Amino acid sequence: MRVIDYFDKGVEIAPDRAAIVAGDLEYDYRQAQAVTHEIAAGLWAAGFDLGQRVAIYSNNDAQAFLCMLGLWRAGGIWVPANVRNALQSNVDYFNDVGVQWLFYHSEFQEDAVKLRDTVPTLKHLFCLDRDSAEHPALERLIEGGRGTTVPDWGDPFGNPEQVIALWPTGGTTGRSKAVMMNNSSWGTTTEIAARHWHCDDLPPVCLMVAPITHAAGGIAVMMTNIAATNVIMLGFDALQVMQNIEKHHVTHLFLPPTAYYAMLAHPQVRDFDYSSLRYFMVSSAPVAADKLKQGLEIFGPCLCQSFGQAESPVILTWNSPETIAAAGAGKHPERLHSCGKETYPVRVAVMDDEGNLLPPGERGEIVARGSLVTPGYYNNPEATAEIRTFGWHHTGDIGYKDEYGYFYIVDRKKDMIISGGFNVYSVEVEAAILAMPAIRECAVIGVPDEKWGEAVKAIVILKEGAVLDEGNILDHCKEKLGSVKAPKTVEFRDEIPKTPTGKTDKKALRSPYWADLDRAVH
């Protein structure tokens, strides 16, 4: 089915339930549906055509989310944009994919003008919240569409091959590529989510913290299929997240590990009622097992994990709350390190560099097949071919599968450190360091070294009031990992750089150490 069809099914489930809550602003499902029809009609009245590219440039805002749904009702292609990116990065990406329409919030008026002036394809701009001297408001677009009929562009099969999003890859290792998502891959993701994220005993309420004009927006749209209320926060603040869980009886919460760790470290983390939580998914990077056990004590048996990427979204594998709770209680405790088992419409395996599928326990690259996988990169056949070798989709993640079918990610292929001829997986070292009670956050990188080629370096943030020195950490790691994998040095910082999507920015951490060398390996 089409993306908008899944939303409409949510409307049919609970038309009077709140669909969007953002501060004092609230829309129920019936009201939200009406606005999406108005936006779609306004687009077509203003000259829109099927398959045109639309971006939304805003902080988290109810109108921004409605525009996402409206552009899909009109038959547009969503181009996710993150206002936390450098403006030039967004300019480059908009030019790469040929953005034609832009909705923006007035606080980004100056950026919108620069985008208009530097992206030749961008001809139609509308301000979400007010008229400006430069561009009309969203309200004017809606007024202009009254009486316009949006053509029924659906087909009997739900338009499975129609591209509905051009999703930017992270860009931490270079300029972002545009991942094509079609109705088939998005629909598969939505249906897997509905199967695994169902909530039978409470009305589903999802707390949206990350940018909804980017990754969180995709999750929010998927949640509408089960008629969830999307409570939209302006951004991440650990205390406000905890307050909102209690206030709104939140059932679903999705955070990257860095935000999750910040919640665990907050002095008031045990002061709130989390009994409504059914799915607290910590994803986008592996989570230290000790941090999961700590979370189980605080938040209850709701913690879960999945593995996915833009090229195979969100839920390629699934580690359920029941599995993690059992592991925390001592039944297969190793599964606290796992990202779960493959989900039902995909095949997931581990492959060596020669294309051989590996047996349980052996490490290699995680590969996948199925309708979840992207059709490829937009206008980039070479990069598409590279991730299609040996007839499988290559994720770029190193891991293994155990005898029960659970997958374990040990590192990104490009983050692996080769020290003295040995492969050192940064995730493994980070997990050992994060097991120390005084550590709040940690990142491990390889730095150039005359003796070892690359030396393992740990960058850590201590919890408030904690006291620890380099020797303590080195001794702990040597005991847990051995001398080869243990860091050679430790650096203490007050913060670790993040990408605009909240992941640890390994590229930014590595670059000062490799800046004067010809290549970033040694």
Task: Outline the structure in words.
- This protein is an alpha/beta fold and 522 residues long.
- The protein folds into three domains: 3-181, 3-Layer(aba) Sandwich (Rossmann fold); 236-413, Rossmann fold (3-Layer(aba) Sandwich); 416-514, ANL, C-terminal domain (GMP Synthetase, Chain A, domain 3, 2-Layer Sandwich), CATH 3.30.300.30.
- The protein is 32% helix and 25% strand.
- It has 16 helices and 25 strands.
- The strands form six sheets. A nine-stranded mixed beta sheet has the order 2-1-10-9-11-12-13-14-15, sandwiched between helices. It has a four-stranded parallel beta sheet with strand order 4-3-5-6, sandwiched between helices.
- Helix 15 links the parallel strand 24 (453-462) and strand 25.
- It is globular and about 70 Å long.
Cα-atom radius of gyration: 23 Å
Low-confidence stretches: 518-522
Q: Which CATH first-tier class of the largest domain would you pick? A: Alpha Beta
Query: What is the number of strand segments?
Result: 25
Approximately how much helix is present in the residues? Answer: 25-40%
Class by SSE composition: alpha/beta
- What percent strand? 15-25%
CATH architecture annotation of the largest domain: 3-Layer(aba) Sandwich
CATH names the topology of the largest domain as Rossmann fold
Distance between the termini: 49 Å
Strand arrangement, major sheet: 2-1-10-9-11-12-13-14-15
If helices are DSSP runs of H or I spanning 4 or more residues, what is the number of helices? Answer: 16
CA-based shape: globular
What's the pLDDT, averaged over the residues?
92
Largest sheet data: 9 strands, mixed
Q: How many domains make up the coordinates?
A: 3
